[in-house]
């Protein structure tokens, strides 16, 4: 039931409006002046507020401004027996949803209230969707093992700083998720996190990808391109699989980190960039340095903080939580009823050799949901894993 607050110093008007709105099945509260109305807004959430302009103690215009500070998303309908076009325009400029003259026309009143409720509902749905989208962008780090607790504690301490972070660990162990949480909990979270998979980009194109290029700088450069460093300005640049970056690109990345400046391929102008670097690799970079494949000076620039993402085989105690997490996600994606997994099946999963780590476990859970019974049994695990 929608909640409506009537703020008016005339008891007869309040009574009339209350009777009309209650007949339409609305939950109605009253206040005799602006100050009393503000007290009620502080105490309770309303879907719509009907607010008189001429009142003692605090007039409607001042009350409108205060209401917008307390509850900015609540639509406020102004009402007045001394209404003029100028007054109506001023009220709308100050944020009122609409303006009604006294005595209000019944049909106009109800239509305006319904429109205001539609707006209130739309705002609520939009906020819910934004929260859902936000949650879907950065999934929770699941696990209670000592290794995962150490990672969570490190992220909480490091994220608010601008320290560069190197995330190490095998493929599929959740390095990207760690990088995203470092960004999410940082002061840069309102700005973008831009990801570059250094292993997926040919060595001859990596410099253009990172720093951009000017039109005509090479055969296929038919227009200017903004690189990842510029795209991430003010935010975070995640260099995934940095151990696969070419030595020439490493040299330019090192310069960018030293000077906070880049130069587009084929360009001459230095461009200032403000980015936080989070890098990740599945390689032993110290061994790569010994082989001559990775610059030692770049390693020391990147590895201010090192976070090791453990293999799933090293945190088997987290498998029950992870399996339950993936069960919920996959069943929700498929729109099916939530399946259960038996304790025996969980123990069988804990005994499996997870060469593909978290990514492999997620795929296995999806397979068991599709092919297994309910609950998923040990026999299902033995058959389909």
General description of the model:
The protein is an alpha/beta fold. The chain folds into three domains: 3-132, Rossmann fold, CATH 3.40.50; 146-310, Rossmann fold (3-Layer(aba) Sandwich), CATH 3.40.50.300; 313-384, Helicase, Ruva Protein, domain 3, CATH 1.10.8. It is 48% helix and 15% strand. It is built from 16 helices and 14 strands. The strands form four sheets. Strands 2-1-3-4-5 form a five-stranded parallel sheet, sandwiched between helices. Strands 7-10-13-6-14 form a five-stranded parallel sheet. Strands 8-9 form a two-stranded antiparallel ribbon. Helix 1 (11-23) links the parallel strand 1 (3-7) and strand 2 (27-31). Helix 2 runs parallel beside helix 3 and helix 8 packs parallel to helix 10 (247-259). The longest helix is centred in the N-terminal third of the chain and has 32 residues, at 106-137. The mean pLDDT is 90.
Summarize the structure.
The chain has 385 residues and is of the alpha/beta class. The protein has 16 helices and 14 strands. It has helices spanning 11-23, 34-43, 60-70, 85-93, 106-137, 146-158, 175-184, 203-211, 228-231, 247-259, 285-291, 296-302, 319-334, 343-350, 357-371, 378-384; strands spanning 3-7, 27-31, 48-52, 76-80, 98-101, 165-168, 193-197, 212-213, 225-226, 236-240, 261-262, 271-272, 276-281, 305-308.
């Amino acid at each position: 039931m929608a909640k409506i607050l009537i703020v008016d110093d005339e008891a007869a008007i309040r009574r009339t409006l209350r009777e009309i709105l209650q007949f339409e099945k609305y939950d109605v509260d009253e206040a005799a002046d602006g100050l009393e109305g503000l007290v009620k807004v502080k105490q309770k959430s309303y879907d719509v507020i009907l607010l008189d302009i001429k009142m003692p103690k605090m007039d409607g215009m001042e009350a409108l401004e205060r209401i917008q500070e307390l509850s900015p998303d609540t639509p406020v309908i102004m009402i007045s027996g001394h209404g003029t076009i100028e007054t109506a325009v001023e009220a709308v400029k100050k944020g009122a949803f609409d303006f009604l003259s006294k005595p209000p026309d019944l049909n106009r009143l109800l239509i305006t209230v319904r429109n205001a409720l539609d707006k209130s509902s739309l705002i609520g749905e939009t906020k819910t969707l934004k929260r859902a989208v936000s949650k879907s962008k950065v999934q929770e780090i699941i696990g209670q093992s000592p290794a995962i607790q150490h990672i969570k504690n490190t992220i909480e301490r490091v994220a608010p700083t601008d320290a560069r972070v190197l995330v190490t660990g095998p493929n599929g162990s959740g390095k990207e998720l760690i990088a995203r949480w470092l960004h999410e909990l940082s002061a840069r979270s309102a700005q973008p996190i831009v990801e570059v998979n250094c292993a997926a980009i040919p060595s001859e194109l990596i410099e253009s990808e990172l720093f951009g290029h000017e039109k005509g700088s090479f055969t296929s450069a038919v227009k200017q391109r903004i690189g990842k460093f510029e795209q991430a300005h003010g935010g975070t640049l995640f260099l995934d699989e940095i151990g696969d970056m070419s030595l020439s690109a490493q040299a330019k990345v090192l310069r960018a980190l030293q000077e906070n400046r880049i130069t587009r391929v084929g360009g001459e102008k230095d461009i200032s960039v403000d980015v936080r670097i989070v890098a990740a690799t599945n390689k032993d970079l110290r061994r790569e340095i010994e082989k001559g494949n990775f610059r030692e000076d770049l390693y020391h620039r990147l590895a201010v903080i090192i976070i090791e993402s453990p293999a799933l085989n090293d945190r088997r105690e987290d498998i029950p939580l992870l399996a339950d997490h993936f069960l919920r996600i996959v069943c929700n994606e498929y729109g099916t009823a939530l399946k259960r997994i038996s304790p025996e099946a969980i123990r069988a999963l804990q005994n499996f050799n997870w060469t593909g780590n978290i990514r492999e476990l997620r795929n296995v859970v999806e397979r068991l949901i599709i092919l297994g019974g309910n609950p998923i049994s040990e026999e299902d695990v033995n058959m389909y894993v």
